[in-house]
Amino acid sequence: MTLRGAHQGQETTLRIMRLEDDQYLADAGWRTAVATIGPLPAAATADGAVIVRLGPPYTTHLEPFQRIRVEAPGLGVSAEVSWPEDVGKALGAAAAGDIFHQPRPSELTGPHEPFEPVTPAQPPEPPQPPEPVDPPQLAEPPKPEDPPKPADPPEPPHGADEEPGEEDEVDKEPPKDRRLLWGLAALAAAAALAVAVILADREQPQPVPPPEPLPTPQPLQPPRTCEDGTLGAAAEELFEQAMACQSIGDKARMISLIDVAARAGYGPAHLQKGRFRDATQGTLEDSPFEQQLDHLAAASYREALDLGVEEARPLLEAVCERLTGDQSSRARGALRRHCN
Fold this sequence. Notes:
Blueprint: E1 2-4, E2 11-18, E3 23-26, E4 29-31, E5 37-44, E6 50-52, H1 56-59, E7 67-72, E8 77-82, E9 98-100, H2 166-170, H3 176-203, H4 235-247, H5 251-263, H6 267-277, H7 294-306, H8 312-323, H9 329-338
Parallel strand pairs: 1-9
Antiparallel strand pairs: 1-6, 2-3, 2-5, 2-7, 3-4, 5-6, 7-8
Helix pairs in contact: 4-5, 5-6, 6-7, 7-8, 7-9
């Protein structure tokens, strides 16, 4: 971590605060109380900057793009930055990012007032070239019509050159009564055939379908206990284990498991953290935190709601209504970030 604008020194201490919930980074992770890191070795560079290196015990708890405030009281540095995404969490990981010294104006009253960075104006986009116009299509010439075919010569009338005789008597149509009898007989034969087919289908036995196989019963998983291990456990299982720790009063292990499940994107874990910080949802004796603060409860409720937990919506609305009457900078920041 390069601190520019700082005074040179051999070692320094850092104070890193997570802006989303005002938690401070310590040796064992994030905590509510103010904590410092160090003293850490600080090496000066040729251009007058100071380089301070953080090891994996601290970078493991920092997420990519997470907004933090870094203060080095011994070097005169204070800045708000986003933790970069290309910082490794293993041993030997490279240091990341430059943090520039920003002097505070004299009219600021608190030590944690943020400053707003100036965003450079974006250049206007170049105009798009006009789309090419297709050339007009020429109409196809009409096809020549086929010449008319010559008419066939008329056939001579049948029997014009023959004398009437006995064959003419044979070609005469039968009487209408005889044709009606033939039609009735054909209709009766078709109806008899249809009845025979229907009766044959009814007499044949229908095949019985085989019974469907019964589903294989799944083995019942025993409920998780507070003493179970966490290796390979899903976020839902870790949250269930945290609730088991609550039943036996192990608050430290309970909130540690809830934090792991929340970082894995499990919405009910964020909802439970908000309830622990909400004074209307429980007493301080039941909460694993040292304080119950509405602006931190609003942050947890917002995370749960964004993950699809609709149960957090009325709780967030109630907390935001209480924050509107609070004029502190933390309350105004929570209203801006979580209550819109």
